[in-house]
Specification:
Elements: E1 4-7, H1 11-24, E2 27-33, H2 40-44, E3 47-52, H3 63-72, E4 77-79, H4 89-97, E5 101-102, H5 107-114, H6 116-125, H7 141-151, E6 155-159, E7 169-171, H8 174-192, E8 197-201, E9 207-215, E10 221-233, E11 236-242, H9 249-265, E12 270-278, E13 284-290, H10 297-304, H11 308-316, E14 333-340, E15 342-343, E16 349-350, E17 353-354, E18 357-359, E19 366-370, E20 377-378, E21 385-393, H12 396-409, E22 411-413, H13 419-426, H14 429-433, H15 440-448
Helix pairs in contact: 4-5, 7-8, 12-13
Length: about 450
């Protein structure tokens, strides 16, 4: 086992990794940008090193600075968390070349599944159903129009190197397609350094279901059930739950086994998720693979009792998974609400600033993962998420009831947060029935405006 790990990230996820390391008896090194000097992960790590100024490019994406910090502090491994360099195959290779273990999948895994076109082809060869789409990168409007005509509208443009909704546009006609193509290419270039996009048939009113998997270096790959990530805004997830209210045992088993088949096809190692879209007739389609730990991993931990971050660290250290597939039991129901510093009544505008009042909920079935505290200054430079509320109950109804109660206890002032939005969702009849699609938020705000 490692004796010291550097966390190449910030905020809530950095704190999550530090806690797992402390429980494993591993010393930790935090890196931070100048405005993050008072961030909680800096305070709780055993050592901390400033790696640059406010911009991500100068700090959390600055590979030479991170590697220098790792070498100065003599760490054996780096955990990238999620976001920033978590799915950067080049960074993983540099770590390995410097004899520093990268806690995540192999560079080959990341390259294969990082390019969405290659990932689709890989999944298709492994026998997974995929969404019909262009067979090559779309460069010109003529190519785009030809593909759209063959598939028929609506279609969706996606960034080949993308994720998180960047470089993604839904189109219902030729005029929209042409303008959206240029916009998506520009956004993909800015977000990923790669302007390549492709086109898929747009699945209308789908559910977004992801399967959590983890593999070790001894050939074992296991699934830990699914998460329903359907409630999204502009392809950004806001609420996640496990198990999904729409999957029966037969469909769940088929999707989980398909995910394992895909992971084994590329000899996948460490934690990852296979993402699917499920249509109104319960047909499922491979969408992409995320080669990292996910923001929403706590809901899986709550229903399985398995600490995914500890498993990541053990796997990277060469150990076997601490459990077998038959040991994985899904018990109860968990729901996660992302608490973002955004104003839901003002088009989710970011709301950085100093926190005055910060009161966390507690009680049975409540977990809060956050790096924020009273007096903390939320910087405007990074992701707006300041915490996650995860609630657990014996079934979905109890989990929702606990979540409603916890949201009432959760106070963050004077900045605006998504707490009020989550309260609205937890009382919405459509949500309570569990019968919603990815257009849920659009419809919710249509009715309340």
């Amino acid at each position: 086992m490692f004796s010291k790990i550097l966390i190449a990230n910030r905020g809530e996820v950095a704190l999550r990794i530090i806690r797992a390391c402390k429980e494993l008896g591993i010393r930790t090194v935090a890196v931070y940008s100048q405005p993050d000097i008072n961030c909680m992960h800096v305070k709780l790590a055993d050592e901390a090193i400033c790696i640059g100024s406010a911009s991500s490019a100068s700090s959390y994406l600055n590979i030479p600075s991170i590697i220098s910090a790792a070498e100065i502090t003599d760490v054996e491994a780096i955990h990238p968390g999620y976001g920033f360099l978590a799915e950067d195959a080049h960074f993983a290779e540099i770590c390995e070349s410097c004899k520093i273990k990268f806690i995540g999948p192999t560079p080959e895994n990341m390259r294969l599944m990082g390019d969405k076109m290659v990932a689709k082809d890989t999944a298709k060869k492994a026998g997974l159903p995929v969404i019909p789409g262009s067979k090559a990168i779309i460069k010109t409007k003529e190519e785009a129009l030809k593909v759209a005509k063959e598939m028929k509208y609506p279609v969706i443009i996606k960034a080949a190197a993308g994720g998180g909704g960047k470089g993604m546009r839904v189109c219902h006609n030729d005029v929209r397609l042409i303008s959206a193509l240029l916009t998506a290419q520009r956004e993909a270039e800015v977000s990923f350094g790669n302007p390549d996009v492709y086109i898929e048939k747009f699945v209308e009113r789908p559910r977004h279901i992801e399967i959590q998997i983890i593999g070790d270096t001894h050939g074992h790959v296991a699934y830990l059930g699914e998460r329903d990530c359907t409630i999204q805004r502009r392809h950004q997830k806001l609420i996640e739950e496990s198990p999904s209210p729409i999957l029966d045992s037969k469909l769940r088993k088929k999707m989980c086994e398909a995910a394992i088949k895909c992971a084994k096809a590329i000899n996948y190692v460490n934690a990852g998720t296979i993402e699917f879209l499920v249509d109104e007739k319960n047909n499922y389609y491979f969408m992409e693979m995320n080669t990292r730990i996910q923001v929403e991993h706590p809901v899986t931990e709550m229903v399985t009792g398995i600490d995914l971050v500890k498993e990541q660290i053990r796997v990277a250290a060469g150990e076997k998974l601490s459990f077998k597939q038959e040991d994985v039991k899904i018990t109860g129901h968990a729901i996660e609400c992302r608490i973002n510093a955004e104003d839901p009544d003002n088009n989710f505008m970011p709301s950085p600033g100093k926190i005055g009042t910060f009161t966390l909920p507690g009680g049975r079935g409540v977990r809060v993962d956050t790096h924020a505290y009273q007096g903390y200054e939320i910087p405007p430079f990074y992701d707006s998420m300041i915490g996650k509320l995860i609630c657990y109950g014996k079934d979905r109804n109890e989990a929702v009831a606990i979540c409603r109660r916890a949201l009432d206890e959760f106070v963050v002032d004077p900045i605006k947060t998504t707490i009020s939005f989550h309260k609205k969702v937890m009382s919405n009849p459509t949500f309570l029935r569990g019968r919603f699609a990815t257009d849920f938020i659009d419809k919710l705000f249509e009715k309340t405006e």
